[in-house]
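Bug report (template v2)

What were you trying to do?
Predict the complex of my protein with adenosine-5'-diphosphate.

What happened?
Run completed; filing so the output is reviewed.

Input:
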Amino acid sequence: MKYEPVIGLEVHAQLKTNSKIFCGCSTEFGKDPNVNTCPVCLGLPGVLPVLNRKVVEYTIMMGLATHCRIAQESIFARKNYFYPDLPKGYQISQYEEPLCADGWVEIRSNGSSKRIGITRIHMEEDAGKLVHEGAFDASKASFVDLNRACVPLIEIVSEPDLRSAKDASEYMQTLRDILVYLDICDGNMEEGSLRCDANVSVMPRGSDTFGTRAEIKNMNSFRFLQQAIEYEIDRQIDILESGGEVVQETRLFDSDKGVTSSMRGKEEAHDYRYFPEPDLVPLRIDQEWVEELSVKLPELRDARIDRYVTDMGLPEYDAEVLTSDRPVADFFEAVVNKGTKPKSASNWVMGEFIRIVKEKGMDSARITPEQLARIISLVEEATISGSAAKKVFEDVFATGKDPDGVVKEKGLAQVSDEDAIRAEVKKILKNHPDEVAQFRGGREKVLGFFVGQVMKATKGKANPKVVNKILRELLAE
Ligand code: ADP
Ligand code: MG
Ligand code: ZN
């Protein structure tokens, strides 16, 4: 390829606080329109914003996890623009002095790892939402829902260090993992808790001057992000190849058509007339608080993957699957802490557990880690077969009942009593003299037939190991 893409992302993440950033209203999603509002977030005259301490705490945590410098003093600014979902006519954000700056994260890129610089992380309030459905004439009227107005966001701006659409999606995934493991954002892209703008340019390979960039607005899935960037790279290369010039502009991605199109050019770019927010004093951060938070920072996904591989001896694949969702990883660790071998716990969690969680959701899990550990040891002690264990698991998952009780109630215990099995085997051999002769004549395959017969006679409860052993014993006579 003659050209090299250059990409920088601006990612918005909604913080998981109970109340909004400058007032006490709830941040709960899915409420009736305008239920979560008060004079502050409605932008009524004469009110004053009060900063939510939790928002600052969460932003510092993200800054620490991404190796940023935490500013001792940062300031809020007014970003002025007019839009019906913005009742004050400005958004309170941070501009010249953000809370966090100059950090980095590591991403996997083409089989090796690569550092992506974080320019800044700042706090801001979200805007409300326009609702077009249900208006008496959608072409003439819309509704305004201000439940989302004043909900806390952080904006994470990267350096232009990404070099492919794949890199960009890896980077976004890495940020999502960090946010979710810190438990400061739910990472839900469909609900808009995590969204991003991508800045894309191309330059001749080996050049040290970046090309002119276009900014693609508001993508809310990894797939769209990757598609939009790939399309944009090709579009810009085509322009350069045909002797044209890329213009700086803001573009929108149409996910149905898979193309980006111009939304506004540089001439129409917003002039936000930023100035310091006079209603909020500069924010001073106590160094002791930062140290306290850095000590309490939870273990992140990459560190867990390392630990599962190094300390528990799991294959890297297992470690990746288990950690892709933090509650699943926590459950897996709790099972291991109950004394289950890591690989056995991993097989069960990656198999049955994740399968049912995908179907029914983590919230519906009634099973405790202790109960899964018990089910695994019931199999290992040969009290129940592997297939019976799946039935027990499904029941305990949904009901939280005691596994031993379920085994008894459903009559799933295996028969390992050798005398009982021997009596059954004798009967079957006697009734099938032809097959016995075939086996003794060298047709090993007939053994499977006999095992099947014993299982049928014992309603699947005979321990297959014992059955095989006794069959071989009696057929050898
Ligand atoms: P703005 O506020 O206008 O969006 P910023 O300077 O904050 O501009 O840059 C936004 C993003 O654009 C950053 O993530 C940065 O890495 C990226 N960026 C800057 N220049 C380029 C470029 N030439 N090509 C691609 N991305 C770029
Ligand atoms: Mg921008
Ligand atoms: Zn409010």
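What did the reviewer find?
The first strand starts at residue 3 and ends at 14. The longest helix spans residues 222-241.
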